[in-house]
Design a protein that fits this description.
Amidase signature (AS) enzymes, transmembrane helix, membrane, TPR_rpt, alpha/beta, binds 2-acetamido-2-deoxy-beta-D-glucopyranose, TPR-like_helical_dom_sf, TPR repeat, about 50% helix, Serine Threonine Protein Phosphatase 5, Tetratricopeptide repeat, about 600 residues
Length: about 600
């Protein structure tokens, strides 16, 4: 990241807030910490155990936490200054934070979250939007925007966030890092401000899959036992239909890696919409009012809608009173969001809860102990800052329907970055059954390197298609050169052939043809040199030998010229031009 980012930025100076950097192209001021942090401090791990005892599992790693995890002695912020003003410092640190510090990691600060952890956008009106380090003109995604950015920019090795409706998975995808949403209930949410308790899950960001693996094991207190291989890897075709970037950009890479690592037989394709329509009957009762030209996509969209309604309902039953007391302090965005969903009837909420219970059974039955689902994490590239797309129903519903699978079923999900498409980060997600966290983390670790390798191959093969188009333009230049030669416009011909050589330097014809033009302009040395290059590229080029012979004859290198004409005759014994030239030269020296 540093190299691409570095040439965009100019250092403009020091301010109290820190070094400011200006993203020239996007006319945005980016803080030196990318606006990721609310507060910096250092909570050190206990001293390492004396050898021969094993060192702490997370020794030498630093991490940051989203500003809704309690840290002893600090006020937990919740993404809005009004919250800090009306709350006391925490008496205890959240166990999730303590367990990581005791595991050897150093906690270095609190990061920005969306207002009250509520949205998926990463645009906080009170603290400013953290900048997306891998796509400066685009949103980082939320709710745990700062934690994603802190890892993406390399300030910490990992970070914690909260994933209610996607708050870890989506910003991980947008900022090009790994994101992990553990199974619902796998980690106690004690000491973490609730957004929507039946959906909230503590999540982890990391760049390195083995760090994610280690942190996951410490956080979930997983035993390190034998690894299980996936037996069924299901690519969710209808979900890839929702994708706004070419789906095979992702499915190809997954297919190749999976086949290589686990064998072809584990791979198959499913339509999850059909499966859910059959196994989650309560979805149908929510389908009304969901617009979709494709019937199959209706259940997916209803699922996203159900999640949103549950989130809003639970959020308001916990925080409604406080919100009422500080209403003017809320951003207009949050006020509008809360109003829009305020009229949900208790009957509808019950339907949403039924959907959740049915989802849990349906997905556990589908995935069993050794199955994985492969879906896009998000519908496409991160939207641009301040764009209308962010608030549009289309975007929100498409994103939420993808994110709702894990949130509504309690399954665990990992987001894996897959390079870039048109300068925006791409990712894929894999989902394992609820409780299959160790299996999921093992699989991510096993498959990560292979996925990256296939992404690189894809980039290389698309740049080789660029080579083809370069070759095509070189051919065009050659044709123009031939036409100029025919018209006896020798200089013009030389420059067209030179252009062809610049576009594609490995074609002997271009050199040989330029030599012919050079012969006409009297540039015999250049003609000789071009013929030598042509011959080195193609040992059987009769024309190149003939032209070099001519050049050498005109330069007075008769002996070498004879050799060239003789060799031309070896290649083409009946060639008159060669015969005539040879007998002329031989007569000269008889
Ligand atoms: C000799 O060979 C060259 C190259 O193949 C060809 O262009 C030319 O027409 C030939 N000349 C004769 C008279 O056969």
């Amino acid at each position: 990241m540093a190299s691409t980012a570095a040439n965009l930025w100019v250092l403009v100076g020091l301010s109290v807030a820190g070094i400011l950097l200006v993203a020239r192209r996007f006319k945005r001021v980016v803080k030196a910490d990318f606006g990721a942090f609310i507060e910096r401090f250092e909570l050190l791990p206990p001293p390492p155990p004396a050898p021969p005892k094993a060192p702490h599992p997370l020794a030498c790693l630093s991490f940051a936490v989203a500003d809704l995890f309690d840290i002893k002695g600090y006020i937990t912020g919740f993404g809005i200054p009004e919250w800090s003003k009306t709350h006391e410092p925490a008496d205890w640190s959240s166990p999730a934070v303590s367990i990581l510090i005791n595991g050897g990691a150093t906690c270095v600060g609190k990061t920005v979250i969306d207002e009250l952890g509520y949205s998926i956008n990463g645009e906080n009106k009170h603290f400013g939007a953290p900048a997306n380090p891998v796509a400066l003109d685009r949103i980082p995604g939320g709710s745990s925007s700062g934690s994603a950015v802190a890892v993406s920019a390399g300030f910490v090795e990992f970070s914690l966030g909260i994933d209610t409706i996607g708050g870890v998975r989506l910003p991980a995808a947008y900022c090009g890092v790994l994101g992990f949403r553990p199974s619902f209930g796998a980690i106690a949410n004690t000491g973490v401000l609730p957004v929507s308790p039946s959906l909230d899950s503590i999540g982890v960001f990391a760049k390195d899959p083995s760090i994610l693996h280690r942190v996951g094991h410490v956080l979930l207190q997983l035993p390190c036992s034998e690894k299980r291989q996936p037996r069924h890897i299901m690519i969710v075709d209808d979900y890839f239909q929702l994708l706004k970037i070419p789906a095979n950009r992702i499915t190809q890479v997954v297919t190749k890696s999976t086949e290589k690592l686990f064998g072809r037989q584990v791979l198959n394709h499913i339509n999850l919409g059909d499966y859910l329509a059959a196994r989650v009957p309560s979805l149908k009762q929510l389908n009304d009012g969901i617009q979709s030209s494709d019937q199959k996509l209706r259940s997916l969209k209803s699922l996203g809608k159900a999640m949103q309604m549950l989130q809003s309902h639970e959020f308001k039953s916990i925080h409604g009173e406080w919100i009422g007391s500080v209403r003017p302090a809320l951003s207009s965005f949050l006020s509008k969001q809360l109003d829009a969903l305020s009229e949900t009837s208790s009957f509808t909420i019950e339907r949403c809860q039924s959907v959740r219970n049915e989802m849990r059974l349906a997905l556990n039955a589908l995935l069993k102990d050794d199955g994985l689902l492969v879906i896009p994490t998000v519908p496409g590239s991160p939207p641009k800052y301040g764009s209308r797309e962010i608030l549009s129903d289309d975007y929100q519903i498409a994103a939420l329907s993808l994110l709702a699978i894990a949130s509504m079923s309690g399954c665990c999900q990992a987001t894996i970055p897959l390079g870039f498409h048109e300068k925006s980060p791409v990712s894929v997600s894999i989902i394992a059954r609820q409780g299959g966290d160790r299996f999921l983390l093992d699989t991510v670790q096993a498959i990560y390197a292979s996925l990256q390798e296939h992404v690189d191959n894809l980039v290389k093969s698309s740049s080789s298609s660029k080579t083809i188009s370069l070759e095509e333009s070189a051919e065009l230049a050659k044709e123009k050169g031939n036409a100029a030669y025919k018209d006896k416009q020798w200089q013009k011909a030389v420059s067209f052939y030179s252009e062809a050589i610049k576009l594609s330097g490995k074609n002997p014809t271009y050199y040989s043809n330029r030599a012919a033009a050079y012969l006409e302009t009297g540039s015999y040395l250049q003609a000789e040199a071009d013929c030598s290059t042509a011959i080195s590229l193609d040992k059987k080029g009769v024309k190149a030998y003939l032209r070099r012979g001519t050049a050498r004859e005109l330069l007075g290198y008769y002996k070498d010229a004879v050799e060239d004409f003789k060799y031309a005759l070896v290649l083409e014994p009946t060639n008159k031009t060669a015969n005539v030239a040879l007998s002329r030269l031989q007569k000269l020296f008889q």
